[in-house]
Amino acid sequence: MNALWITLALLIAGFAGWPVTAGVFRLARTIDDRTLDGRAGGRGSASGADTAEDPSADSTTDPETRAGQEPAPDAVPAPDAAGPADTVSSARILRGGAIIGILERFAVCLAILAGQPVAIAYVVAIKGLGRFAELKETPVAAERFIIGTLTSMLWAAGVAAVTKVLVFG
């Protein structure tokens, strides 16, 4: 019977965490939009309306660099870049975030249920090292990474804690 509860907790932590994370991204974007509206008159149509519609999209682009625009002067080209359109900040970044998030939530929930919370540090380290180059080059990616990681981990830890209290007493 315990295996059933653990499986249910893993499924809830892994798959129900995606809408929670998407909601937090939407909330963060709403707060950013309000701040921008107050300072500079808001976002224009060229400021990423395609990703504004879906805050949980797997791509994030640096707001200074959009398709068809010149990159910012401080944008660092990728090592094999052929021109300004191939800069790191204009590339799609944080690809695979939804899959990585599901796996991260599984790992965090399982670590807590197994009584090994130290394993969460390994998850954070692996995730951070894997994304280091993207996070270093693009502040937008770093912000999205932090928001998504904290939201996912809190969700998974909450599900694991509730399961542990209800099932294991």
Task: Give your account of this protein's structure.
The chain is an all-alpha fold and 169 residues long. The protein is 64% helix and 0% strand. The longest helix has 30 residues, at 139-168. The protein starts with a helix and ends with a helix. The model is unreliable at 42-56 and 64-91 (pLDDT under 50).
SSE diagram, text form:
Layout: H1 2-15, H2 17-40, H3 49-52, H4 97-113, H5 119-137, H6 139-168
Helix pairs in contact: 1-4, 1-6, 2-6, 4-5, 4-6, 5-6
N-to-C order of helices and strands: HHHHHH
Structural class: mainly alpha
The fraction of residues in strands falls at: under 5%
Distance between the termini: 14 Å
The total count of helices amounts to 6
Indicate the radius of gyration in whole angstroms: 19 Å
Could you name the ranges where pLDDT drops below 50 across 5 or more consecutive residues? 42-56, 64-91
User: What would the average pLDDT be, to the nearest integer?
Assistant: 77
Residues in helices, as a percent range = 55-70%
* Count of extended strands: 0
Major pleated sheet: none
Estimate the global geometry from the Cα principal axes: globular
How would you describe this structure in keywords?
0% strand; 169 residues; 6 helices; globular; mainly alpha
What is the compact description of this entry?
The chain is mostly helical.
